[in-house]
Amino acid sequence: MATSSSIGLIAGGGQLPLIFARQAKAKGLTLHTAAVRGSASKEIEKLSDSVQWISIGQVGALLSFFKKQGVRQAVMHGKVEHGELFKNFRLDFKALSIWLKLKDRSGEGLLKALAAELAKQKIVLKDCRFLMDEILTPKGFAAGKLDAESNAAIVFGLGQAKALARLGIGQTLAVKKSAVVAVEAMEGTDATILRAGQCAGSGVIVVKVSSPKQDWRFDVPTVGPATIQKLIQIKAKGLVLESGKSFLLEREKLAVLAKKHGFFIKVI
Fold first, then answer.
1. What is the pLDDT of residues 3-17, one digit of tens each?
2. 75 vs 34, 61, 78, 114, CA distance in Å?
3. Of 96, 192, 218, 241, which one is least surrounded by beta carbons within 10 A?
4. Closest by alpha carbon to 63, among 106, 121, 113, 103?
């Protein structure tokens, strides 16, 4: 039987599914998790009231699991590499029927199709930021020191990043002074940062923004220690994020790293 105190979770890799699971339990919600094989952590089993392990493409199994558990609202968290959406598919009958009807077979197109199938089952796929206020980027957060040159580069970088985001090209852009040195594509943020270091050396500023057409059900830009380590590796000058539009993991640890390694983090 469906209840307002239960929620479904489609869990990929990384910390976000685990953070959401802990928040859901803290709120007294019953958590039913569909965990993606090869991506989700085994730890999710300890935090969930029920778990179904699924492969990418097992839409029928996902829908059946949520229906059996009476799920009427769900969220999606965690990383499944975009490239994985186009290889090693294990399509069940439901997924195949969806696939054959799709005109847009991009990663986003597939996720929207999944959301539509959930809606047909009267399951609402919620904004990823639901219950995640504690890790959303807080307005005014800053770590490390900025100089006049950095402020000018930030203004330039934000303008360029938002222009590219409007075109759906990428969410991350690296600048040095008044030049764009790297733009994110399918390779992801960390690879973009490393490429920026290869192209421009030390002193780049990384700007991460959301798209005006961002579908918050599927994707919230996320920064954590792994990304910060890439900034340290290339001796970056700083990182810029938008308030309320990114997840910032282990905030206190990141502030310490910024001070120690001489770069800044700024939330606008």
1. 568 999 999 999 999
2. 10, 17, 10, 12
3. 96
4. 121
